[in-house]
């Protein structure tokens, strides 16, 4: 794991990569529920990546499943977080585009 970003100016650029779960070789890379979340700083030149169970994680956006940037919405079918750009290219067989489908 990396080192936490300590630059207060970067806080607006922090995103949650894994919210309250973990995937590790120890567990066969399966999703394992956890009190900790994986946070990443998306500021240029900053490689901050760390796990924490601090309360501020609840205020941070999730990362987009497609591109890794902050997610703005979730797919109605699979509930994965996506930005608007990636959501338009993400689809499920037989359901059309999740952004417009009401089923």
Model description:
The structure is a single chain. By secondary structure, this protein is mainly beta. The protein has 2 domains: 1-60, no CATH class; 64-91, no CATH class. 6% of the residues lie in helices and 21% in strands. Strands 1-4-5 form a 3-stranded antiparallel beta sheet, with no helix packed on it. It has a two-stranded antiparallel ribbon with strand order 2-3. The chain has a two-stranded antiparallel sheet with strand order 6-7. It is globular and about 45 Å long. The termini are far apart. The mean pLDDT is 86.
Count of individual helical segments: 1
Placed side by side, the strands forming the largest sheet appear as 1-4-5
Mean pLDDT, nearest integer? 86
Largest sheet: 3 strands, antiparallel
Structural class determined from secondary elements? mainly beta
Provide the number of structural domains: 2
Q: Write down the Rg.
A: 15 Å
Q: Helix and strand succession?
A: EEEEEEEH
Strand content: 15-25%
> How far apart are the termini?
40 Å
**How many DSSP-defined strands?**
7
Question: Are there runs of 5+ residues with pLDDT below 50, and where?
Answer: none
In helices, the fraction of residues equals: under 10%
Shape: globular
List the helices and strands and how they pair.
Elements: E1 14-18, E2 21-22, E3 32-33, E4 37-41, E5 49-52, E6 73-74, E7 81-82, H1 84-89
Antiparallel strand pairs: 1-4, 2-3, 4-5, 6-7
Question: Which key features would you list for this structure?
Answer:
103 residues; mainly beta; 2 domains; three-stranded antiparallel beta sheet; two-stranded antiparallel sheet; 1 helix; 6% helix; globular
